[in-house]
């Protein structure tokens, strides 16, 4: 009987570990945007930490971890830093990573191009991604669909 109980405990432990890993992975895809004002990014979750840089308003970040009033975030370059969670907004922006992303009228390559966006241009997400396309809106009001491979933050 002891070997069966031990096997059950190992299986339960493996399931718990897998569940914890899945929970962390799901959380790792939490994108937010720097709010209405620029945010100071730190190397530690404290205002006593070293100031790494100032993130402009609207910059998308991936929330990797939340610790109290602080969030550890990754930017489009892959750099990790800490920011006060209150400085992040739920508004969802993406940044263009392609040299010149084409924004189409519909989620199809054959649809007309509404406008082009150069690298590092911010676009607001209008709808969740579907079939490799993301509905976006530029701050001047133009909108359309961009391939998710041409932006970061979705």
How is this structure best described in words?
The chain is of the alpha+beta class and 154 residues long. 18% of the residues lie in helices and 45% in strands. It has 1 helix and 14 strands, in the order αββββββββββββββ. It has one helix spanning 2-28, and strands spanning 30-34, 39-42, 51-55, 60-67, 70-74, 80-84, 88-89, 93-96, 100-104, 113-118, 122-130, 133-137, 143-147, 151-152. The strands form 4 sheets. The chain has a 5-stranded antiparallel β-sheet. A 5-stranded antiparallel β-sheet has the order 13-12-11-8-14, with no helix packed on it. It is elongated, with a radius of gyration of 20 Å. Residues 4-28 have low confidence and may be disordered.
Please give a quick description of this structure.
This protein has 154 residues and is of the alpha+beta class. It has one helix and 14 strands.
């Amino acid at each position: 009987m002891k070997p069966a109980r031990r096997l059950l405990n190992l299986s339960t432990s493996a399931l718990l570990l897998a569940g914890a890993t899945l929970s962390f992975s799901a959380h790792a895809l939490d994108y937010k945007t720097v709010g209405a004002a620029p945010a100071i990014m730190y190397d530690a979750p404290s205002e006593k930490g070293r100031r790494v840089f100032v993130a402009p308003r609207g910059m998308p970040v991936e929330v990797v971890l939340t610790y109290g009033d602080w969030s550890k975030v990754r930017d489009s370059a892959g750099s990790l830093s800490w920011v006060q969670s209150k400085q992040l907004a739920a508004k969802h922006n993406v940044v263009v990573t392609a040299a010149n992303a084409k924004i189409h009228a519909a989620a199809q390559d054959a649809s007309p191009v509404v406008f082009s966006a150069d690298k590092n241009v911010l676009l607001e997400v209008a709808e969740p991604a579907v079939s490799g396309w993301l509905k976006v809106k530029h701050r001047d009001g133009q909108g359309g669909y961009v391939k998710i491979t041409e932006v970061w933050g979705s």
